[in-house]
Amino acid sequence: MSLDEYKRKRDFNKTPEPSGKLATSKSGSLFFCVQKHLASHLHYDFRLEHNGVLLSWAVPKGPSLDPKTKRLAMQTEDHPFDYGEFEGVIPEGYGAGIVMLWDRGTWTPQVDDVDAALRKGDLKFTLDGYKLKGSWVLVRTSGRFPGARGGTSSGGASRSWLLIKHRDDWAGELDITEFAPKSVKSEGDFEDILAADTPAVWITNKPARPAVGGDTGAMLARIIEKATAIKSGRAAPKETAPRHEEKPRRHEGTKKKPRPTKKPQRKKS
To answer: Are residues 128 and 28 in the same domain?
Structure first.
């Protein structure tokens, strides 16, 4: 395990992210976390402690509690153990955006040899977090899964994995990302995290924002507006409700159909 790639991608004079060193959990249990990351695109960074670092996968749509739903998980560089508590704003450079600590807890491998399972591409484990619990599996794919951009690790293996929930008491059809969208650290949302440290460059210079166009850019613009309101002590702007569609009008050339009349009943003599 190495943090060389992690350090090579970052300028620690600009980013508040921990520079990192090899470390382990003091509790003796293995740590895991999921960080919700709004950068050029919204995604969820899934991290498992192993040999002093956090093994990391970017999950574009976030974890699913439904065993029928396979979530693409692209393996990224190992992160330092200290990164597991990071929540804040990366103003510019690699990974620029807002990072939320969406879930954290402990994990237990369901295999005797984690390294062998990683080489094989089939890692089974249990999670005990605030939001994610029970039995899961990470399975490496050939990179042909829809949405995968391909790529290989330094060892030549595909970086494309699937994160799948096993069927147990913690499985279900509930969309956990929508049901519990906020931070387990600050209990806030993206705008609350941004309000604590609003990068002025994002407000005065739109091209410097992590995302400008598309749905992500629109989402970030709303978050910046809310964060600016929170920081100035004003109430955050409410989301605009969608306009209700008007009922189709009757064409002018058509006539109303006459209402059926009830047939008069004869009185019994």
So the answer is: yes
